[in-house]
Design brief:
Helices cover about 35% and strands about 30% of the residues. The protein is an alpha+beta fold and about 675 residues long. Strands 1, 2, 3, 4, 5, 6, 7, 8, 9 and 10 form a ten-stranded mixed sheet that branches. An eight-stranded mixed sheet has the order 11-13-16-15-14-17-18-12, with no helix packed on it. Strands 20, 22, 23, 24, 28, 29 and 30 form a seven-stranded mixed sheet that branches. The longest helix is centred in the N-terminal third of the chain and has 44 residues. The relative contact order is 0.07.
Length: about 675
Amino acid sequence: MTQLNTLHRHLATLRRSRVLSRWTTAYSAVITAALCLLLAVFAIDVAFQMDVLQRVLVMALAAAGLVWCFRRYAVPELGVREDEIELALLVEQKHHISSDLVAAIQFEQPQAAAWGSRQLEEKVIESVSDLSRRLDVFEGFAQPKSRRRTAWLLITLIVTAAIVIRFPDYTGAFLQRLCLASVHYPSDTVIEQIAINHRTVLDRRQHGAGPADAKFAEGYPLDFWVRCSGILPENGRAEFRAAGDRKRPLELQQMTLDQRRERLQQTAVALREGLAAGDLDLAGVWARDLATLARIDAPEAADAIESAAGDAARLEETAAQLDQLLASWPGLTERTAVYAGRLPRLVSPLVYQVYVGDGWTDPAGVAMIPLPVVESQLTPVPPSYARAAGDKPPDPAARQISVLEGSEVKVAVQCTNRKKISSAWLTVLGQAAPERYDLTAQDQDAFHWSLAAAGSPFYRVIEPLRFEIQVRDEDGLHLETPIRGHIRIKPDRPPICAAAVVHKVVLPTAKPKIEYRVNDDYGVAKIFLQVAVERQQRGGSDTTDREANMERQSLSLLPDAQPVLTGRLPVEERYVLDLAALRIERGGVLQPANLVKGDRLKLTLEAVDYRGDLPGESYQSDPLVLEISDEAGVLAAISQADEKSEQRLTDIIKQQLGIGETR
């Protein structure tokens, strides 16, 4: 402990006080400048509603101003460093003291012993020690600059606090906007929700004032639905800007409560009808259309319809919710207004903003995505018996084809613009309810899809078919118009046959030669000679009785039972019918015919075409009638035939010579 402890303590206290004063002076100026700059940015942002880029620029300028203020007003204060000797000199100046304070401090150092008289040094130290007990080192060190800057800081804080208390909503929005959030300052008209078609792009609680970017199908219209609260004007507007194009406005008209209720009723009715029909997801189009109707006044129900399409239980709950909403209509709904407008056709990507009253949204984009371009392929596979017929196959891209009855038709689709297909299906249309058949992907990229024909009407076409093909791509888009096709049945014509015999009056033991010809478009399975014996009748009897009493027998002209296919057609043969060996059926038993004079034989040629495992169709020729007679009758018939032939030959000669012509 030295004699100058009191002086050292006073000087240390003075140094701390001066350091604190300089800090207060420096940082008061910096904080005051920061608050002033913040209030300036606040005022500019409120006045001009700056976008993100503008806000970043203004905040950068404010930050530059704050850096300048720090260097101008704080750095000079914070850069001062004072030691004990400098403080002692300042005290000597303020109190008009000679250099005893500095000398005493220096004489107290160990190396002072070598400087000169030790008695003089001790005398100076003792004198300064007595002086320091009554010396006020703070006298004369008033800091008016620190007080001024502190006063300005208090005034700025009071003004800032008053603004925060008076405009809390603006303040909260401003703080979020400083963080570059898409938040707008409070307005009289509040945009609560925006929906485009069936999709919600803005929910104020989730998105603030910045709608989410969306993408929609090329060529489709865009329906805008804007729900607002607060002060509700009669209309609003949406502004669109495509690349390289000027802004184009779209007027948004306010819907009446009756119109909004009607949309919800349409949703509820269509939902109930879909549940009753069991048709809960027609390619997602059904769910999308219902969601579009319900989106603006019942967004939760719209989300449920889209996500639960096919889930009857959840859709029942959604239908009940819609019924409750309609029963309590309008309820709180009348406090809001819905503004609607339509852009007729999306032809290019665009950016839009919505303005209603003094409320507005940030710009948002609508991307244009192409629809899937799909080509269908119908490949008929005829039955095995008809594959070698040489018919030219139809064009696979044709949507209306004719196929042979019993053919298989392979159905395939291909996406030609290289969009992945998530699902594809075929709907068979008919008099009954439509039937849906799903197609399966045939490649990893999901560009090619085909129908598993087994279990579908296309496996074996036995009647005309009308159908539609629809797909859903990776973006959830469908064909604007389903691919429609028609398969007609190309008839397998029945066979044709004819038979002839030279002599029609024969003996009971004759062997008449029957010449016949059979033809068909694909093949002949069977050829029969149907023999009917009409016995000589005594007395009168009508035709019906005679037909009923005929004795019949069927003779196969293809004994090996092998079908004759196209390459071997037509069949032109001669069959010798041995009347003496002819056997007919009596009482289910074959017995000799025993033909006698006066009996008649009715010979009919019958052909059955070949249709694989399907039953063939038969055709019968005109019947040949043989009359059984004795030798005299046969000769008479031959003579009569010769006379007729001679007369016909004479007529031909006269015609050639011109005999008997009138001049």
